[in-house]
Amino acid sequence: MARKNRRFTTFSLSFLDIMSCGFGAVALIFLIIKHGSDHDVEAENQDLSAEVNLLQEEVQFGREHMVLARNTLDTTSDELAEAQGLARRIMEQIEEVKGNLAEVDSTTDEMDIARLQKKLKKLEQAKKQLEEENKKLGNNVRKFVGDGDRQYLTGLRLGGDRILILLDSSASMLADELIKVIRTRNMSDSVKRNTEKWRRAKQTVNWLVAQFPQDSQYQIYTFNTGFQAAIVGTEDRWLNVDDRDQIDEAMKSLDKVVPQNGTSLERVFHAVNNMSPLPDNIILITDGLPTQGMKAPRGNTVSGKDRRKLFRSAVKVLPKSIPVNVVLAPMEGDPFAASEFWKLAMSSQGSFLAPSKDWP
């Protein structure tokens, strides 16, 4: 029997194999592409998560600070309200005071006004009187406190427009006893400047200057056989008490003075007589009668009688009508000094003081 011819069909086995392989390749490519996409998506998700976390932290930080800001705002609002209330009360008090003043002004009669004016006039007179007394007594241009803050009634006349202090700087100002003077004058200058008697004399000057009226003038001379101003170069002029720096300079200059040589009152009194204008008050700080006049003595010693003659000769040179206030630190072996200086103070209408060793 003859074989039948086989028909050709497009859905043969070979065609199906080819299609299966193609679908498999497509599935494989899809799987590969999907895997890569998941990886990229996962990475993007991680980045976005980090940003979200950061934003959440910023939000949380902002919320916390917002709470703090709200608390601060509440506190400020309370303080503002309190301040406004206080201001309102103050304004009410001001208005109340204004009302009281207006009421007082409206009720005050002419008699009350006259009485107040009379009282004011009395107060002005009392003030003027106190100012005049302050000018007389001085206003303590320098502070000076003695041992134990003691105050002294001296009787010294410290007023005047031009006050002259004469400070004895002879060798006798080193000590109160003659033997101590002889011993000390052979020592160094630093020892001489710091002896007890000389320091007491400088403190006396310091105390006196502290009592001068502020509107007055002054000058300080140190003298032995010669004389010089405390501030060298100012011998021909008066210094102002209200210049405190200049007063401090004068006090520092006294600290450099070394007591030495003899005493010539006549020479320094001649210098006083040549001052222009003349002083109207002299304060003499010394310890005894002079040992020479305008010239040095011939011998090495001067008797008590000769010293009295030298003193009286010097007093004749002194300008008249100028009060001389004497501060005497008595020296051993000079018994006539106190009586002679007392006579000078009384005749010139000055004062005489022989202070204790702890003054001023």
UniProtKB/TrEMBL annotation:
Which is a Pfam family this sequence falls into?
Answer: VWA_2
UniProt keyword list: Coiled coil, Membrane, Transmembrane, Transmembrane helix
Residue ranges that the Swiss-Prot or TrEMBL entry lists as coiled coil = 38-147
Q: Which CDD domains match?
A: vWFA
Transmembrane residues, as ranges? 12-33
Under InterPro entries, the record lists: VWF_A, vWFA_dom_sf
Q: Where is the VWFA domain?
A: 163-288
Q: What is this protein called?
A: VWFA domain-containing protein
Organism listed in the record = Microbulbifer agarilyticus
Upper lineage is: Bacteria, Pseudomonadati, Pseudomonadota, Gammaproteobacteria, Cellvibrionales
